[in-house]
Design goal:
The protein is α+β, with helices and mostly antiparallel strands. The chain is elongated.
C-alpha cells in the first residue's frame, strides 16, 4: 500500500489527502457544533468529552495542511469540510432533540380544545387572556421536551391553524409538569423485578 501511494503522488496529493481533510473537518466541526449546543444547555459532562475529540481531530487535519502548504487543493478541502461540518452538526443535534424548549401560542380563536388536546398528552400548559392588534387573544405557554415539539405543532395545526407560534430554548427548568418517561428495562432491573415477585 505504501509503495502504491509513493508511486501515485498525484492521487495522494490531490485526491486522497484532500478527501481525508474534508472528512476530518466534517467530523470535528460537527462535534464542535453539538458541543456548543450542549454548553449553552448546561450539560457539563458531555461537552468537555466532545471538546477533547474535536480538538484532536482538528490537530490531525491542520497538521496535514501545514505539511503541504503548497497544495491549494488542501485549502479548498479544509473550507469544504468546515461548511459541511456545520450542516451535519445541526442535523445531528436536530436528530438528538436534546433539552427543553418553551413554546408560546397566541390564538384569536377559542383555544379550549387545543389546551385540552395538549393536556391529554400529559403536557402542562399555562394560558391567559390578552389583547392583540386585532382584539382579544389567548396566550398559551408550555415548557416541553424538544422531542415533543412536533407533537404540539401538529395539535396547533389541527385545532388552531392560524395561531402564532414561537419557540425558544430553555437552559434550566425547575419543577413543572412533564410526561413521565417509561423506565428503561435493563437486564439488572428485570432480575430485580423477578426476585421481588418471588418474595
Amino acid at each position: 500500500m505504501t509503495e502504491f501511494l509513493s508511486n501515485n503522488q498525484f492521487l495522494t496529493m490531490y485526491v486522497l489527502m484532500p478527501l481525508a481533510i474534508v472528512i476530518a473537518r466534517i467530523c470535528d466541526v460537527s462535534i464542535g457544533t453539538v458541543r456548543i449546543i450542549l454548553v449553552s444547555r448546561g450539560m457539563k459532562l458531555f461537552a468537555p468529552i466532545l471538546g477533547f475529540f474535536e480538538v484532536l481531530i482538528w490537530l490531525v487535519a491542520i497538521s496535514q495542511i501545514m505539511q503541504n502548504l503548497s497544495n491549494w487543493v488542501n485549502y479548498l478541502a479544509y473550507a469544504t469540510g468546515f461548511a459541511l461540518g456545520n450542516y451535519f452538526g445541526m442535523m445531528v443535534e436536530e436528530r438528538l432533540a436534546m433539552g427543553m424548549v418553551v413554546i408560546r401560542i397566541i390564538t384569536q380563536n377559542d383555544a379550549d380544545k387545543l389546551i385540552e388536546a395538549i393536556q391529554k398528552n400529559h403536557i402542562g400548559t399555562t394560558s391567559l387572556a390578552a389583547r392583540g392588534m386585532k382584539g382579544d387573544v389567548r396566550l398559551i405557554f408550555s415548557i416541553i421536551k424538544r422531542k415533543d415539539q412536533e407533537l404540539i405543532l401538529d395539535l396547533v395545526r389541527k385545532y388552531n391553524p392560524g395561531a402564532f407560534v414561537s419557540i425558544s430554548d430553555v437552559r434550566t427548568v425547575k419543577e413543572g409538569y412533564f410526561p413521565k418517561a417509561a423506565p428503561e428495562k435493563t437486564p439488572f432491573s428485570r432480575l430485580m423485578n423477578t426476585s421481588l415477585k418471588r418474595k
